[in-house]
Amino acid sequence: MTNRTPWWIALRAGGAPAVAALLAACAPLSPNIPAPLRVPGAAASAPVNEAVEAPRTLRTSSTPVPPVQAAPAEPAPAKAAAGDATVAAVNLQQVALPTFVQLVYAEVIKKNVNLHPSVVQRQDLVTFRTGPDQTAEQVEQAVRLVLKSYGLSAVDVGGVVRVLPDNAALGDLPAIRYGAASPEVPLPLRPIFHLVPLQAVRQTDVTVWLRTMFGDRVTVMEDAGRNAVLLRGNPDNVQAAMEAIAALDQPAMKGRASLALSPAFWSAEELARRLAEVLAAEGYTVHPVGNPVTPGAARAPVILLPVSALNTVYVFATTDAVAAHVSQWAKALDRPADRGIGKNFFSYAVKHKDAEALAGTLDRLLSGGGSSATTTPATGAKPEASASTRLNSVVVDKATNTLIFQAKPEEYGQLTGLLQMLDRPSRAALIEVTVAELTLNDSTEIGVDLLASRIEAGGGYRIGTSAGGSATGALSINVFNGLNVPKLALSALATDNRATILSSPRLMARNGESATIQVGQEVPIVSQQQATGVTTSTSNGLLTTVQYRSTGVILKIKPVIHSGDQIDLDVQQEVSEAINTTTGVTSSPTIQQRKVDTKLTLRSGATVLLGGLISSTGSEGKNGVPLLKDIPVVGNLFSKQTRSERRTELVVLITAYIANDTHEAEAITDAFRKSLGSWAQQPAALRKAAEPAEGASALPAP
């Protein structure tokens, strides 16, 4: 077996293309090596380990503003169209109302006119004068406004203008409309039934308002089931009533200010009560805290609504200035008792860590380092099952993952600052491991010397045997600094070699914790046999002990992430399988194993390539004519001798990516999904399309 220069370990971001080139050169059938993930760069921000949060204080935030219903658009005044002929100027002084209507419509506007009998009996006197260059449409619009002031309506029906009182009973079939918007084209003489749903106020309030404003000109009926009102009247009056509804159907908070106060040291109920007392002492009228605000009842200028579940006080005030004044009082009140006697109790809701883990650190600080976060129960005793675990000075509420501790007010700020610095999301690392097996023979030639010389010229250094050494099966290391390193040039002369990807697992682990992925099977192996001395028809008199051995693809990792995106990585990669034994122990199989156990230091996105694990197997055989093939010298004419040698080399590619938070973890997941092709992206697109829009209801619409 010819000695070969050992393979190497290469630390270089972008090592995956090099391995792809190597395997493509070594085998006519190139295996599919997973491409490196293209993770989008994170936005520039301060390092996680160096960020410092502000001390715990009262938080003030804005609240949603109730929507304001828009009033119906008023019809635009008529404008003279190009080419419209003007009519004669009108100048009437103290003319009877019936004569005024007939004169203007018939003589000036040139339209047919019909007067209601009650209009004919009217004795009102009208003075009307128009300006120069007025069109017929403009004059008619002015006449309609004059008639409206006398309680009359002019409706054009089929070329006949009917003038009648606003509250006259109309003989045409009514038109029915629904909604808060009026039709763009006004209807003729037909009466209108318009059902208007209300958005903010009760229908009883609107009914009282409309009857006061319109009297019997508009009939108003209530629909309590829909919280709506039904309007009946001629088009002009119904339009006016809808404009009034749009102005009145507004929330009581329209034009008012609101904000949310989240106290840091007080409860929401206690802060609301103290604020009410202070504001009342200043002369403000405050709604009693704890009493619900009932619809239709008198509203105080200031409303304080505490929500204990969120530990938040919602403030509703008449103006922004009053709301800001309430916020200033809340900041003045929300502070620990500076003159408290002894120590006070405080709580801290842990967001990203285990509360018991933080309790150990905090308790050692409070007790001078003499206590521990956990206690070991006595032998045979069961730990108590309770909602909280008491330590010397700290209580851990497991139900809410909250710390309750006792400290002096002046110590509280320091302790909360320390807890906020420790209570950060755990960083994680995604580890990619690709294990490839190269099948070699004596005709294979790999240009490792040329490759090493080129990379060393780019700033690398060598550990282990030299390029011209002869350590068969040994492992040599070439470490590259990644600066100005030329592209890896791998040359391989092979005619019938093959390369196989044994495994390509990906596993994400949290910083400082171990993670394992295993895909394979448990193989039974006989570990002990003992004679029992009793032989039956179903037993051979042997007591056999069987142990199970895990085989398949097994990956164990433990990353330790440092600042500067450096990772200390413990990797154990095993590829094993059970094969027929050749050791003579027929009761148990032989485990064929490929295993790498190493510790590395690399940066995020970098790739480590390990090689040089070469194994060799050989076999010899002879077959031919019986008896004749065994004759010395002459027997070679009657026989065939075979000799084969199989040499394989294991190549391991390791890449690590750091995920500082959930957003980067999602970005890595998306990059991995894209590397799998369109079939892996389609389910995500379907899920996104199936998700309801923000604020939309997922329930079926009626």
Task: Explain what this protein looks like in three dimensions.
By secondary structure, the protein is α+β, with helices and mostly antiparallel strands. The chain is 23% helix and 33% strand. The strands form ten sheets. Strands 1, 21, 26, 27, 32 and 33 form a six-stranded antiparallel sheet that branches. A four-stranded antiparallel sheet has the order 2-14-16-15, with helices on one face. A four-stranded mixed sheet has the order 10-11-13-12, with helices on one face. Strand 18 and strand 19 form a beta hairpin. The longest helix is centred in the middle third of the chain and has 15 residues, at 268-282. It is elongated and about 150 Å long. The model is unreliable at 1-33, 42-54, 75-83, 370-392, 443-497 and 692-702 (pLDDT under 50).
What would the keywords be for this entry?
702 residues, alpha+beta, Phage tail protein beta-alpha-beta fold, Ribosomal Protein S8, Chain: A, domain 1, 6-stranded antiparallel β-sheet, 4-stranded antiparallel β-sheet, disordered N terminus, disordered C terminus, signal, NolW-like domain-containing protein, NolW-like_sf
Task: Describe this structure in a few short sentences.
Keywords: Membrane, Signal, Transport. With 702 residues, the chain is of the alpha+beta class. Helix content is 23%, strand content 33%.
